[in-house]
Amino acid sequence: MPVEVRDATVCSAMYLVRADAARAVLAYSDLDITEVLPGKALCTLVFVRYVDSDLDSYNEFGVAFMIRPPGAGHPPPRSVLSGLKDLGRHGTGAFIHWLPVDQGFTLEAGRSIWGFPKELAEIDIRMSSPYKRCILRKDGRLVLDLLIRPGMPVPGSSAPMDAYSHRDGVTRRTRWTMRPHGVRSRPGGALIRLGNHPVAKELSELGLPKRALMTTTVSHLKMTFDNPIQL
After folding, report:
1. 63, 17 contact by CB (below 8 A)
2. In the 8-state DSSP scheme, what is residue 105?
3. Nearest by Cα to 44 from 73, 67, 27
4. Is-contact 206 192, C-beta < 8 A?
5. Could you read off the pLDDT of 60-116 as tens digits, one per residue?
6. What is the pLDDT of residues 150-166, one digit of tens each?
7. Residues 43, 14: contact at Cβ < 8 Å?
8. Among 62, 104, 202, 210, which is most buried by a count of CB atoms within 10 Å?
9. Whole-angstrom Cα distance, residue 157 to residue 195?
10. Which residue spans within the chain are E strands per DSSP?
11. What is the DSSP pairing of strand 122-126 with strand 132-138?
């Protein structure tokens, strides 16, 4: 430790979803959703191609929510922008709800070290065309087909943030530092088709498919994952 990612390509789509529906999804944990607007929460869908890392090369998909753990004591922000600025402060962080991967070594490491909810799945990531695409299947059933159109170049910033997980009754917080290069972002920019897998049904109950609040692509990302802290 720490575990290093020396090169990865990342595409993400952020959605405003109903806070009550998001709370229902995360009812198994002891963490609460951050309301970036009254009654609204942030859900992020992300797919990653890990090119060079301590856990080998593999593909990954993630479903995450912006949360504030108990006792943070910071009032909800009054705008989406202030909510995003709040990320990583006052105990705010990203709760990793689902994290399928396509390789066994990272599956075992993610579960045993950080308690991440990793599962094996078929993850077809296509980065070579102007439109970035991920087709995700689990147990032979389509979960989703997500297409992202890169936006305009924007400055990348290196900042630590907290990733939270809850597995086998234990909540963990992991400090996670990102160093991005080749960042592009835009409002909207995503097209999503849901399949018939239970996770697809869960996403539909959040209100997806809908217009993305924002999409971001990173052509080269370095990351560092520290030891987790059990809460």
Report:
1. no
2. H
3. 67
4. no
5. 999 999 998 766 655 555 555 555 555 545 557 999 999 999 999 999 999 999 999
6. 999 999 888 788 999 99
7. yes
8. 62
9. 35
10. 3-18, 32-33, 40-53, 58-68, 93-101, 118-120, 122-126, 132-138, 141-148, 152-153, 159-167, 170-187, 190-194, 214-230
11. antiparallel
Q: Taking Cα atoms as reference points, which of 199, 195, 194, 192 lies closest to residue 215?
A: 192
Asked if 195 contacts 160 with a C-beta cutoff of 8 angstroms, the reply is no
What CA dihedral angle connects 205, 207, 209 and 210, to 10 degrees? 180
Q: Side-chain half-sphere of 195: how many Cα atoms within 13 Å?
A: 16
What does the buried/exposed string (b/e) look like for 34-57 if buried means 16 or more CB atoms within 10 Å of the residue's CB? Answer: bbbeeebbbbbbbbbbbeebebee
What integer is the mean pLDDT of 33-52? Answer: 95
Please give the model's pTM, rounded to 2 decimal places: 0.91
Q: Which residues pair with 183 in a beta bridge?
A: 218
